[in-house]
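Ticket #4471: structure output looks truncated?

Reporter: J.K.
Steps to reproduce: submitted the chain below (262 residues) through the standard prediction queue, then opened the result file.
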Amino acid sequence: MGSASASRLTDRRAVHPLIGITTSEVRVAPRLPHTPQADPPRAEMALGMSYARAIAAAGGVPVVLPPGDIDGIGSLLAQLAGVCLSGGPDLDPAAYGATPSPQLGPTWPDLDAYELALARRADGLGVPMLAICRGMQALNVARGGTICQHVDGHRQDVPCEHPTHTADVAANSLLHVLVADQRIEVNSFHHQAIAAVGRGLRPVAWADDGVIEGVEAPGAPFVLGVQWHAEALIARAEQFALFTAFVDAARDCVSGVHVRAA
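Returned output as attached by the reporter:
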């Protein structure tokens, strides 16, 4: 590599793009013994630290996105170079025109509305997106797809750092380029899955039982969804590659390689 090329690469790596990470889960704070210094018990946002650590390790600056005013999404996205749609609870079936199944878990329709609006706006602006677990399902619904409200055998009972099944990867896909294999090990913490695939999305990974484990949007700067929790597996090179590619795509947005429509 020539000195000029090496210098450009070094300059590019010095860019640390802002990456928004959604928080689509709310938990009730535990009731601890009251002390004069304690905050009052209240509902709190929940986001696993592994998302922020994975983004930071790949060279991005994680920015936690609380569900808020939908009207402010445009201003928010003007500051971000990428969006990670995180895991969380079941999506409200009303979001994709279905009635609730008896096996549906807890839902937060207000949070769904914000996350879906964010995903649609980011998608329309060409903001790179990495969608994980529920996030992949939200991406699918944002593009008009639907969700199977319950599948058996996809929720492991061992820690998330341990893969428990394999996924087959389409040979001619971005995901295959990133993981450099056609069969990879993944973890599994979901009981819902993609049913009808959303507009412009292409399934690119499957479990042995046919459940869709990965989707991408050909032609987009970077739109990739995986059903597993890749953020918990970044000690594995093929999983960390998802984050480095995502942050690299965000760098391209910062540098103007991808031009967003206003």
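Triage note (M.O.): checked the attachment and the full token line is present. The chain is about 30% helix and 20% strand.
Status: closed, working as intended.
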